[in-house]
Amino acid sequence: MLLFVGLGNPTPDSQNNRHNIGFKVIDAINQKFGLSKQKPKFKGLLTTGNIGDKKVYAIKPLTFMNNSGICIRELIEYFKMDATDVIVFHDDLDIDLGKIKAKFGGSSAGHNGIESIDKFIGKDYSRVRIGIGKPDSKISISDYVLNDFNDEEKEKLENITENIITSLNILLDKKLELFSSTVNNK
């Protein structure tokens, strides 16, 4: 059993923000693998189903980015899951747009959503860090991550999500290094 978590903010005006890339990945997984209809549960939008021989839960927390850990803790406690069975998809400023790095545990690097998860379930979970790059101009980091992707970035975003989908079987087996190299070479 695995739990996929996509980080983002649940407001309609946030849908295409850089910070919501995790929500976009969960939507793509739900659509591609025909997971159940999203239902409000555990302070998030939850879907379930099977991908290959694995039982999968996928959730988009509705607690806003900075409180994502609340939703995740409720869910894993209810299903008696271990934190090691959690895989979080989130934006990362320190990675170039279009690049992906998967890792187990580690520092939050100042990402408030990750800090919240660390606080509520510890650091023993996997993360798929999706590069959004750094702002070119003098825009603040908070404004940058809360701005929408431009048209060129949206095209790259489609490629990113497609690469994640086509490499998902590797991620299901928690082969994080292989997933990172495979997903970036498509």
How are the elements arranged and paired?
Blueprint: E1 2-6, H1 21-33, E2 39-41, E3 44-51, E4 54-61, H2 68-78, E5 86-92, E6 100-104, H3 112-121, E7 126-131, H4 141-146, H5 151-166, H6 168-172, H7 176-183
Parallel strand pairs: 1-4, 1-5, 5-7
Antiparallel strand pairs: 2-3, 3-4, 6-7
Short description:
The chain is α/β, with parallel strands linked by helices and 186 residues long. Helix content is 37%, strand content 23%.
Per CATH, the class reads Alpha Beta
Instruction: Tell me the β content.
Output: 15-25%
| Span of the ends, CA to CA | 27 Å
Count of individual helical segments: 7
Mean pLDDT: 94
**Gyration radius, rounded:** 15 Å
The computed structural class is: alpha/beta
Shape: globular
What proportion of the residues is helical, as a percent range?
25-40%
